[in-house]
Amino acid sequence: MKQLSVSEKRVAQEFEPKIIAFLCNWCSYVGADLAGTSRIQYPPNIRVIRVMCSGSVDPLYILKPILEGADGVLIAGCHSGDCHYLNGNYKARRRVAMVKTMLEQFGIPGDRIWFSFISASEGRVFADTVRRMVTRLKELGPNSMKAQWEI
Amino acid sequence: MYTIASFLLRTQANVRETLKEFFRGLMKKDIVDLLLVPQETSSGRSVVYTLVKDPNKLLSPDPVGPLVLVSGATVLSNLTFRDPGAVIGVVLRPCEVRAAIELVKLGQANLSPVLLIGVDCLGTLDPRVYREEVMQTGARALSEQWLTSLRSGLVKGVRSACQICSEVASDAVSVHIGFIGTGPNEILVEVKNSLVERLREATGLVEGTASERSSLISWHKEERQKVREEKLLAWQQSIDDLPRLIAEFATCLKCGNCRKACPICYCKECVFEGRIFDHQSSSYVNWATRKGLIKMPADTILFHLTRLCHVGYSCVSCGMCESACPVGLPLATLFPAVAEKIQAIFNYVPGRSLDEVLPLTTFKEEELEPR
Ligand code: SF4
Ligand code: SF4
Ligand code: SF4
């Protein structure tokens, strides 16, 4: 990774990325809830939107926050075999790969978009995912779309 | 795969008369009940799709004229989305066949009541260019000139989508009408073996081939594949960040013509024209407050990026989007350039075969990114 100058480092330290998270109703949202009720600490950078299935997240809903200037988008669904709608989670993973590939063509790092399998019992995995994501987004710095008005 | 038999039709008076007899034969011998075929309009200024039931009303078939106003795949979808209760012969160019195959997989068209009839294509003109030319010469003369060029394999001034299209003739059809590499008094007809007997009886085909044809076609394929790779790569390298993309779309009116013309954008109600984008006034105010200002109408880039994701895996590089764009934005490069990358993730070639499963309707247990 490129060396940051002193002033860039200061910005990077002060910068708190904003993450929009789409969590599926049956697994990942419950996992996030569990993290809360079990008092597992995780960074407060995340804004959660509950969806019925990770497979229902259209690219539109990933792209809108990125163009609005959100620093990252997390999509999380159930593990293998647990999807309430059979395989929406796997299809979501493919869709996310597609959105990332497109965004990379336009200079938006793929690492702004994360996809995870998080079950209802994985409060700790949820907290850890958010933590790792925040660390990575701090390395990437703020999303320049924040200042872009011609979208 | 099935085997193909090759025939020649000797043209009597002219090609149009011969094709007319050929198509009428298909209808009269009940090989098809109806025919969807481009015909010259009575004004003599255009070539449009017609759905023909009465063979005697088939007067000016013109599958050669260098104009496609609406993708034949879109028309096919309209005709077969619900069971038409009849067998329809559908005359399509290669890019339209590709789009038709995608529409079948997307559940928007049905090929079981259809006899696909392919035609050679080395490209069509932008509708604006076609209009200028047709005002000088008339549709008939323009088509005749075009046919001569097609036979020799040399066409000029085709749309940018056509310049990078290497599929000169489609393999996915039951009957194919070829002109490339044929002599002035012949038309090549390739027929799926199972159809040969009925077709021969109906249309007076005689066995034969065009000797120059296959070398001319492979030459075109290679040349155009090369141009395609160069052009898409150059685009991918030059429009490599969002500000550059935004600059590219600076004159977009957000009219939505591109998506209306795109055969793959099949939605009866596009999300961009539904309730979701019928924003509250307060939303605009919020967005303007957050950034200090926003462009109005809003969401232009969001529209294009979303559309890229919605059609990316199935985009067949037909360029209907660009032909429909009132400001001539280079959509026929942009969409294929990005679509190519999306299709590469899944190793998917749109429009090639009904047997290849759409990438977003399937998955592998282990792939991409577990985090
Ligand atoms: S047709 Fe052209 S001007 Fe209209 S929305 Fe599409 S790109 Fe923009
Ligand atoms: S996006 Fe354009 S090139 Fe691709 S299928 Fe649609 S109309 Fe054809
Ligand atoms: S842009 Fe998307 S929602 Fe709109 S018609 Fe195309 S595929 Fe459908």
TrEMBL record, chain A:
Keywords: Iron, Iron-sulfur, Metal-binding, Oxidoreductase. The keyword Oxidoreductase applies. GO terms for molecular function: iron-sulfur cluster binding; metal ion binding; oxidoreductase activity. Coiled coil: none annotated. Residues 19-141 form the F420-non-reducing hydrogenase iron-sulfur subunit D domain. InterPro entries: MvhD/FlpD. This is F420-non-reducing hydrogenase iron-sulfur subunit.
